[in-house]
Amino acid sequence: MLDVLIFIAGTGLWLFGLIDCAKTDQDAARTLPKWAWLIIVILFGTFGSLAWLLAGRPKKVAVARNRPGRVLPPDDNPDFLKNL
Q: pLDDT digit string (tens) for 8-67?
């Protein structure tokens, strides 16, 4: 049973790496060209996918979230008090 779970996890990781590599922009791949990463992922399976995730996948750029400022109650809000 454990062998089946390891096989399914490895196959899932391989498919994820293959699809992720294929969908990545040509210029975004790190250390090697995209076509080389695709060949590595296809030929080396799970180990190629791990290599892609660790060394080839583009780093995510932190996106600033536009959170609203602190909510003030009406009696502390200067804009509200101006309108009174």
A: 999 999 999 999 999 998 888 889 999 999 999 999 999 999 999 999 988 776 566 666
pTM over 0.70: no
Contact predicate 77/45, CB 8 Å: no
SS3 category, 56: helix
CA dihedral of 38, 40, 45, 49, whole degrees rounded to 10: -70
Q: Decide: helix, strand or coil at residue 32.
A: coil
Q: How many residues does the chain have?
A: 84
The alpha helices in 1-84, defined as continuous H runs, are 2-23, 34-51, 78-82
